[in-house]
Write a structure and sequence with these properties.
Helix content is 42%, strand content 15%. The protein is α+β, with helices and mostly antiparallel strands. A five-stranded mixed sheet has the order 1-3-2-4-5. Helix 3 (39-47) packs across helix 5, helix 4 packs parallel to helix 7 and helix 6 (141-150) packs across helix 7 (162-170).
Length: 172
């Protein structure tokens, strides 16, 4: 009997387990802002000053009836990009008058997590910011900034800001 229990225990402990499939989920921003775990969010949001060179123009173009934003983030200590770019991006959207109901934020543990747009979008990293128009993804704001960084030869003056990329996306 002891041998059977030991064998069953070993079988359970060492059996192959299927790969876990994580799924991103929609964040309620009101609850997110109240969560003390994410104390950094409000501080970074308050500190950030969007570049009005671009946001004033973007505010004139933005239409709540057609434009929505989808954001994928990993709001943890291990994702420093999310801790800076996410609150900055939200402040930028706030500065052009985007209503929170026009923003979907998905919490992800990895860029490979399943999400509602995974048939249309392949995420290569986190965070990622997209503009949707009339229900279709039309522009990756984050990829535009990353691409400009790759062409900059290390010169920060050649890198497009998120504000610039937002304006370009809204002009599409």
């Amino acid at each position: 009997m002891k041998l059977i229990l030991i064998l069953l225990s070993c079988l359970v402990l060492f059996s192959c387990k299927e790969d876990e499939v994580n799924e991103g989920y929609l964040i309620n921003m009101v609850d997110f802002k109240k969560d003390p775990t994410y104390f950094w969010y409000q501080q970074k949001f308050d500190e950030y000053k969007p570049d009005t060179t671009y946001t004033l123009q973007a505010k004139q173009i933005y239409s709540s009836s057609r434009d929505k934003f989808v954001i994928f983030v990993k709001p943890s200590c291990s994702c420093t990009g999310t801790q800076t770019e996410f609150p900055n991006f939200m402040k930028m959207l706030n500065s052009i008058g985007v209503n929170e109901q026009d923003i979907e934020v998905y919490r992800m543990s990895s860029h490979t997590d399943k999400h509602p747009l995974d048939k249309k979008l392949t995420l290569t990293d986190l965070p990622r910011f997209f503009l949707m128009r009339n229900g279709e993804v039309i522009y990756s704001i984050s990829d535009s900034v990353i691409y400009s960084r790759s062409l900059s030869d290390g010169n920060p003056r050649k890198v497009n800001s998120f504000e610039h990329a937002l304006l370009v996306s809204l002009k599409k």
